[in-house]
Design brief:
The chain has 134 residues and is of the alpha+beta class. It has 2 helices and 4 strands; from the N terminus they run αββββα.
């Protein structure tokens, strides 16, 4: 599946196509990995339709989540960054460790993001093949 246009600001149809793209990637990898029932998606709301999040999923039983931010490209180079963040308030909420992926979507970024999502969802870590280029 080819990556979709990043320019969805102001166009609900293009935004929906971008959401559908990520949801389809997730459903395929989660089904193939046999983890689809342990995760719920969407997890976070996207009331501003600004690409954050374009996709989200959570496994409350594992205390892990995935949060994908898609933005317009600013260069011809690969734009892909990721980090691990905590979601929730210590002492109030169950803390969720979330993999946050921020990217503009040429196909290479989508492929690498999908590999990171699978590694995090299945193993709870990001492998060396997914070294953060930032």
């Amino acid at each position: 599946m080819a990556a979709r246009n990043n320019r969805f600001d102001g166009c609900p149809l293009q935004y929906k196509h971008a959401e559908d793209y990520w949801r389809t990637l997730w459903e395929a990898l989660a089904t193939e990995a046999g983890i689809i029932d342990a995760w719920e998606s969407p997890w976070l709301a996207a009331p501003l339709y600004d690409g954050s999040p374009i996709f989200s999923a959570v496994s409350r039983s594992q205390g892990r989540a995935i949060h994908v931010i898609q933005h317009e490209p600013t260069t011809d180079a690969l734009e892909l960054e990721w980090w691990i963040d905590e979601f929730g308030e210590q002492g109030v909420d169950a803390i969720i460790q979330q993999l946050v992926i921020s990217c503009a979507l040429p196909d290479e970024a989508a492929e690498r993001a999908t590999q990171m999502m699978r590694s995090w969802a299945v193993c709870g870590k990001i492998g060396p093949a997914s070294e953060n280029p930032a």
